[in-house]
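Incident log, entry 3
Record: Transmembrane protein (33 residues)
Problem: checksum mismatch between cached and fresh output.
Input:
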Amino acid sequence: MFVSFVLLLSYFTCFFLLLFVCLILFVLLFNPT
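Fresh output:
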């Protein structure tokens, strides 16, 4: 039970990190300063 919870948490963390990186890349591409 606990191991599955930790696995789920790690998956969500990885997903949000990926989403964050994609968002930053998107902003950098479409809004060059």
